Amino acid sequence: MVVLVFEKNAVILGTIKDLKDDSVLVLKEVLKVSFFGNVPATTTVDKLFISICEITEFAPLTFIPRVRFQIT
Is 14 helix (H, G, I), strand (E, B) or coil? Predict the structure, then answer.
């Protein structure tokens, strides 16, 4: 299942691989877009661990089979 995770200065798009101890979300095939002021920086990784402190909203992105971003 593909999900979007919103952090303070970043947006993360990835596929859920696991949830450990109800507190660590493990994503695979991850695209992270961080913002430094008005300058975006993208990072792609095979696996990302996110410590979860609070989930306020959840919706699976099952309608997007493959997403590609192009920042210009």
Answer: strand
User: How many residues are recorded in the chain?
Assistant: 72
Domain residue limits, the chain: 2-51
Residue among 34, 30, 36, 25 at smallest CA distance from 15: 30
Quick one: pLDDT band at residue 72, thresholds 50, 70, 90? very low
What pTM did the predictor assign? Answer: 0.69
Question: Is CATH 2.30.30.100 the classification given to domain 2-51?
Answer: yes
3-class DSSP state for residue 69? coil
